[in-house]
Design goal:
With 168 residues, this protein is of the alpha+beta class. 38% of the residues lie in helices and 11% in strands. The radius of gyration is 18 Å and the shape is elongated. The N and C termini lie far apart (40 Å). The structure holds FE2/S2 (inorganic) cluster.
């Protein structure tokens, strides 16, 4: 099989890079290298948008861990993306209390207005990915959503176009 079209992995923590400097600085504040694993994975996700197997191997090597250990952590936390996602990652609570307040209609509105059409799919322009999540801890403000790190409460289907138009 030809790998001519396989994308080359570009390391995040190359010597002298800003991320390497940031990680080295972080390591002086943690008791062990392993303790810096979660922030190191965040850095990767901020740089690349997701955490690939190659990125996990890089983090493992930088922190003297096994790739299997790093993968175990990445797969445990839903905040780490194991596949490429849209620039705006939209999480919508559809747990029962929000569901009875109309969360499904909010999901439908996001799927329609983003062009994703299906949960977990990225829109053709690469801008959006929409997923359902469990309770976001704002049950009195249905429907709460998160777009990347921003939290928005009391979202209704009518508000969706305006929310999307406010995104860069
Ligand atoms: S059930 Fe939706 S935020 Fe708690």
């Amino acid at each position: 099989m030809s790998h001519a079209h396989a994308e080359q992995y570009a390391p995040v923590f190359t010597t002298g890079s800003a991320r390497r400097t940031e990680l080295d600085e972080l390591l002086t504040r943690y008791p062990t290298k392993m303790a810096a694993l979660l922030p190191a994975l965040w850095m990767v996700q901020h740089e690349r948008g997701w955490v690939s197997d190659e990125a996990m191997a890089e983090v493992a090597s930088v922190l003297d861990l096994t790739p299997a250990y790093v993968k175990g952590v990445v797969t445990f936390y839903t905040m780490y993306h194991q596949h490429p996602v849209g620039r705006h990652f939209i999480q919508i609570c559809t747990t029962s209390p929000c569901n009875v307040c109309g969360a499904e209609a909010v999901v439908d509105a996001f799927l329609k207005h983003t062009g994703c059409f299906e949960l977990g799919q990225t829109s053709p322009d690469g801008k959006y990915t929409v997923i359902e999540v469990e309770c976001l801890g704002a049950c009195g403000f249905a429907t709460p959503i998160m777009i990347n790190e921003d939290f928005i409460e009391s979202v209704t289907p009518e508000k969706v176009p305006e929310i999307l138009s406010g995104l860069a």
